[in-house]
Amino acid sequence: MAEEVMKWEKLLSSTRLGKEEIINSDDSNPRSEFQRDYDRIVFSSAFRRLQDKTQVFPLAESDYVRTRLTHSIEVSCVGRSLGTLAGEFINKKYGYDNKNPQDYGNIVAAACLAHDIGNPPFGHSGEESIRSWFQKEPEAKFPEVITDPEKKDFCKFEGNAQGFRILSRLQNAINRGGLQLTYAVLGTFSKYPRGSSILNPNPEDISEKKFGFFRDDADSFARIATELGLIKKKDNTWSRHPLAFLMEAADDICYGIIDLEDGFRVGRVSFEEVESLLKPIACNRGFNEYIYNRQDDLKGKTEYLRAKVINNLIFSAIDVFKYNYDEIMKGRFQHGLMSKICKYENLQLEKIKELSQQKVYAASNVLYIEAAGFDVLGGLLEKVVPAMVKDEKNKTPAEKKIYQLIPQQYKASCSKYTKLLSATDFISGMTDSYAVMLYRRVCGIELPRG
Question: Which of 82, 88, 93, 102 is nearest to 32 (CA)?
Fold first, then answer.
């Protein structure tokens, strides 16, 4: 029996979620379906909210330091380069003359643009605070009708799954399929193509490290995976879309290098440390010592190093993609591309990660605000969940007031499970500033003016 292999004829599907009956055949439109996906994400309110969501330095006062929004734009640029280079390789390998390499690039760019769209306030500590709240005294948090598999959606809350939910359901909620993105972009976005309640995820497989969709969205994901021809590994678990490896690599490249640059700009890392870590990678390809030395300040030199390093790592990631291409297409490649680049570059990236852990991520202002985030999100959940889940007759007067404050779009749920999802939808969609403001007001710490 022949081994199953994914096919690009299906992987590049331009079918739109929620508009499956409509065939996209407008050849007069110079924009591809995947460019339209990119634009839809840019103009979505969920994407705009990333401008006030933590990247590394929460609520940073410097307008240079990245937010989730600027980080996502930068990742999409790197992703477009990776996808286009991969597209050239794939088209040449199969002799495709009817596929544009830029289509691959636009798919990856759109997925990269949305890769953090499901992150709650306060970055990854926000995810952990939601998990922690549900895990603590769960018998008091969950109605009896909630099943154990459903509880895992909350006790293991995952921003990647929330992102899929936003793209496929919550954003433009009046539409079936939410933003109605193409299957190709949604598949590439799904870095972890499995559900939350899988009993034995493979710890060696990076695609099973986390989960990528909630139980409420499992049917939508299964439909997408089937249409794309993703290889089913077990119940509710599929292989990654090959281009998802490129989206992950773009993110890995950007946050590793750019967080170091931000650390330098806010004075946490010295220029000597930046130069010693970045210059060895920058010198591998296209580095010009004369241009480097002509930079008139240390910021300019840092930016030159960052640009050259990112360029070199893009080509390193593509080399790994090409070398492991057959395994990727069979759904058997279990590693991130960046973990398999040359040992010397990998060693430098590990040193960068180690320094960032010591001096950037552990900066006191970062830790203070992340710690406060636990109280803010935990406090909001304490107020919002009972107001959302309890029957009207069982709500306290205070819970009834809280319920009135919740936007109408989150009140359409019927079951206790979907009401809990609506509560996390509401809270995880907040910006950092709005979460702090609402927490202070519902706790009586401040009152609205005017």
Answer: 102
Task: Supply 263's token pair.
Answer: 């650390």
> Using 50, 70 and 90 to split pLDDT, how confident is the model at 59?
very low
- The token pair at 99 is 């596929």
Beta bridge partners of 213: 195
Angle among Cα 299, 304, 306 to the nearest 5 degrees reads: 95
Q: Average pLDDT in the 315-340 region?
A: 97
Complete DSSP assignment for 161-218: HHHHHIIIIITTTTSTTTT--BHHHHHHH-SS-BBTT-SS--TT-GGGSS--B-GGGH
Q: Model confidence over 342-388: pLDDT tens digits? A: 988 989 999 999 998 888 776 666 677 777 778 899 999 999 999 99
- 17 alpha-carbon distance from chain centroid: 19
- Positive/negative CA dihedral, 191, 197, 202, 204: positive
Distance of CA 238 to the CA centre of its chain: 18
Q: Mean pLDDT over residues 259-282, rounded? A: 91
pTM of the predicted structure, to 2 decimals: 0.94
pLDDT-derived band at 450, boundaries 50, 70, 90: low
Residues in contact with 294: Cβ distance below 8 Å, sequence separation at least 6, in sequence order: none
Q: How far is CA 142 from CA 122, 375, 393, 418, in A?
A: 25, 20, 18, 12
Query: DSSP class of residue 3?
Result: P
CB neighbour list of residue 332: distance below 8 Å, 6 or more residues apart = none
Angle in degrees, CA 217, 219, 225, rounded to 5: 105
Sign of CA dihedral 291, 293, 295, 296: negative
Helix (H, G, I), strand (E, B) or coil at 232: strand
Task: Report the DSSP beta bridge partners of residue 16.
Answer: 182
- Tally Cβ neighbours within 10 Å of residue 354: 11
The answer to whether 186 touches 18, Cβ cutoff 8 Å, is no
pLDDT digits over 103-140, tens only?
999 999 999 999 999 999 987 888 999 999 999 988 88
Q: Do 249 and 82 meet the contact criterion of CB atoms below 8 Å apart?
A: yes
Rounded to an integer, what distance in angstroms lies between the CA atom of residue 94 and that of residue 34?
Answer: 21
- The DSSP secondary-structure symbol of 408 reads G
